[in-house]
Write a structure and sequence with these properties.
heterodimer, A: 371 residues, 11 helices, 9 strands, 16% strand, globular, B: alpha+beta, Butyryl-CoA Dehydrogenase, subunit A, domain 2, four-stranded mixed beta sheet, 8 strands
């Protein structure tokens, strides 16, 4: 209920920000976004082993550090600010959250410690060709055979799906939606990287054809855990959006002070001032929404689902608005490949569309408050 | 800690609200102007505690006794800039309700540009004799005291003026049809110079004292009550299932929840003594623009019934629609707020 950051949390933010300034500057982002795997194994090793960032919100009994979602929100915010190219979001916001939400103790004991120590990159394969996020959209077929479960079908928009060691697949068994685990090491499925609008976040298409898989949780009862994962991942995404929006606001204000046209800094024109003021309102409000959702999740509050939809809808629009205005304020240079404005603009749009856009989340919110 | 305060205050409200003497109980417990220091009749609650107290009053459906301009403007200005004598003289009368203030800042030619006030206070011995004309004064008919901006030989100052015979008021009917504002005419109103807050020279800062963050939770609770009333209206007219209507309702609710989260963050930061200039400025713009937008949503959803006046109920949405236009004008226009954010918070150059 005390909605402020502790000194320890402020220190975490400083540590992560310094690390990312050093290891994920614009040059590194541009190099990695053009690479096939989309991340730097050396940075991943440091981030997981040295800083322990994959362990943060995993309980100690599963090899984690036992902190809460409030700390994770800080980490995601900083990663969004730096456009970090790494499978952190897929591993932590998606796979770890899904595992934590299932009642499957054995799967948790097998997978969470290796996620926490950084030795396994993981993701969740959820959406299909239609690119929608509801339970009814799941058609990938799971069949029970004498030799165990087999998966057949396709998954799309799988975040870091081509580099993940462990993929949690949301499939439909005869009795309903269920969660399965497949390992890249075991083969049995193909992962095809997609050409992405936002090159800083890799997506893949996964094809399964009678692929052996391990059931996680109870058959036919997987959706509530997926639902919970989607809420928590939406909060993580909202935090990333806040970080990116804050960064583009700073870029715009800085440029408006130094760029001179018609004999005066463009920031002295009221049209530019009001754009910047609107960006600040959007950024500060977005922070309030994301932090509120993070605190609700940390307390496992009944408000979490509504807060998640609030944060995802507001932060999506705030980030896109800020990233778009950032290009406008920069003028011609903001439209070039050379300038980083487009990297944020594309991340803003891709994260807005991931897990449902603002309108989708407002509809979720309407349902959740009973209208 | 705040959670514990919430539990305690909820229990206190539950026990106290029963005895039918709510206002007297609040006075006895120093819970009117509860954010003021105990030495001056308050309870010294932090902004976050005031917020929680107001929220719990709303949840318990007991009226929040708020002293308006006296509580959020005059009191804080006196507490910050006043003399010991002024504190002793003026503050208890605000708390008791004996003095009810209205704010008289704007003038016919100076709506937002307050530094250009021409209402003149002539120094005559120990007194100021004031002549002038103020506009857009809300609550003047109910008030017995003016919180007035006037100039005294080049200096703009803040002065507290009893509304006696030398002061006349005239209603300015607003677009709602109601006299929501008054003009105030001062024909030689005489006040001792001890009524000037911060001294006769250089009391511009007292007039700009950051308004206390009181009433924020009460305002949010009111937003939410209006929202659910609108949902009932939409169900009554069968429009609640229209996807376009649902989207607008969901948008409105998400803004109310956002404003609550933002306000909580603001009052928590204030309580911790952090710099909250950016949070305060963004809260004002967010809230006032939402208010206006909600007025538009409400009349659209309530539909044609709001365009005629067959009963008292159908006029509510019409009134909200009309009165909410003032939200982005009074006391500061949204445009001024944006310019202030750009210049004072983002430090963009001031020259035009």
């Amino acid at each position: 209920m005390d909605r402020s950051f502790t000194r320890e949390q402020d220190e975490l933010r400083d540590t992560v920000r310094r690390f990312l300034a050093d290891r994920s500057p614009e040059g590194a982002v541009r190099h990695l976004m053009a690479s096939a795997d989309g991340y730097d194994p050396a940075v991943w090793k440091q981030l997981t082993e040295q800083l322990g960032l994959t362990a943060i919100a995993i309980p100690e009994q599963y090899g984690g550090a036992g902190y809460s979602y409030a700390e994770l929100v800080i980490v995601f915010e900083e990663m969004g600010r730096a456009l970090l190219c790494a499978p952190y979001f897929a591993t932590v916001a998606m796979a770890a959250n899904l595992l934590l939400a299932t009642p499957d103790e054995s799967a948790k004991r097998d997978f969470l410690p290796v996620i926490a120590n950084g030795s396994v990159i993981a993701t969740v394969a959820l959406a299909e060709e239609r690119g929608r996020w509801g339970e009814a959209e799941i058609t990938l077929e799971a069949t029970s055979t004498a030799a165990g479960w087999r998966l057949t079908g396709e998954k799309h928009y799988v975040v870091d799906g081509h580099t993940a060691d462990l993929v949690l697949v949301v499939a439909r068994a005869a009795t309903g939606v269920s969660i399965f685990a497949v390992s890249r090491g075991d083969g049995g499925y193909t992962a095809t990287p997609s050409e992405t609008l936002d090159q800083t976040r890799k997506l893949a298409r996964l094809s399964f054809d009678g692929t052996p898989a391990r059931l996680v949780g109870e058959v036919g009862k997987g959706w509530p855990a997926v639902r919970q994962m989607l809420d928590l991942a939406a909060i993580a995404l909202a935090a990333e959006q806040v970080g990116g929006a804050q960064k583009v606001l700073e870029m715009s204000v800085e440029y408006a002070k130094i760029r001179v046209q018609f004999g005066r800094p463009i920031g002295s024109f009221q049209a530019i001032k009001h754009k910047c003021a609107d960006m600040l309102v959007a950024v500060e409000s977005a922070k309030s929404a994301a932090y509120y959702a993070g605190w609700a999740a940390a307390e496992n509050s009944p408000e979490t689902a509504v807060a998640a939809s609030l944060a995802k809808s507001y932060c999506s629009e705030a980030y896109f608005q800020a990233a778009a205005e950032n290009i406008q304020i920069h003028g011609g240079i903001g439209f070039t490949w050379e300038h980083p404005a487009h990297l944020y603009f594309k991340r803003a749009k891709s994260s807005e569309l991931l897990f449902g856009d603002a309108a989708y989340h407002r509809e979720q919110l309407a349902k959740r408050i009973g209208i | 800690m705040l959670a514990q305060f919430r539990r305690e205050i909820r229990e206190w409200i539950r026990r106290t609200a029963h005895d039918g003497e709510w206002e007297r109980s609040l006075l006895a417990a120093n819970m009117i102007c509860p954010g003021w220091p105990p030495a001056h009749g308050g309870s010294g609650l932090s902004p976050a505690e005031v917020f929680v107290f107001e929220e719990e009053c709303a949840k318990a459906c007991v009226p929040l006794i708020h002293r308006g301009v006296g509580e959020h403007l005059v009191g804080p200005a006196i507490l910050q800039h006043g003399t010991a004598d002024q504190k002793a003289r003026f503050l208890p009368r605000i708390i008791s309700g004996a003095d009810r203030y209205c704010r008289a800042y704007s003038e016919p030619d100076h709506g937002s540009d307050l530094a250009s006030a021409t209402t003149h206070g002539a120094r005559t011995g120990d007194d100021l004799v004031i002549h002038g004309h103020k506009t857009w004064v809300a609550g003047a008919a109910e008030a017995n005291m003016l919180c007035l901006l006037c100039e005294t030989g080049g200096e703009v100052c803040l002065v507290l003026v009893p509304m006696t015979g030398e002061i006349q008021i005239r209603p300015t009917p607003a677009m709602t049809g109601s006299p929501e504002f008054h003009e105030v005419f001062l024909h030689g109103a005489r006040v001792p110079r001890t009524h000037v807050i911060g001294g006769v020279t250089g009391s511009w800062p007292p007039a700009m004292t950051a308004a206390n963050p009181s009433g924020l939770a009460a305002a949010n609770a009111k937003f939410e009550a209006e929202f659910w009333e609108l949902v009932r209206e939409a169900r009554k007219t069968g429009r609640a299932d229209d996807p376009g209507v649902r989207e607008r309702l969901a948008w409105a609710y998400s803004r109310i929840a956002l404003i609550r989260a933002h306000t909580m963050r603001l009052v928590t930061a204030m309580s911790a003594g952090e710099n909250t200039v950016a949070l305060q400025a963004t809260e004002r713009l967010l809230t006032t623009e939402f208010r206006r937008h909600f007025g538009e949503i409400a009349i659209d959803i309530a539909g044609p019934a709001t365009t005629v006046q067959p009963d008292e109920h159908s006029t509510t949405w019409q009134t909200l629609f009309l009165s909410s236009r003032a939200a982005t004008i009074d006391p500061h226009t949204s445009e001024l707020r944006r310019t202030a954010i750009a210049e004072e918070i983002l430090h963009l150059p001031t020259s035009e």
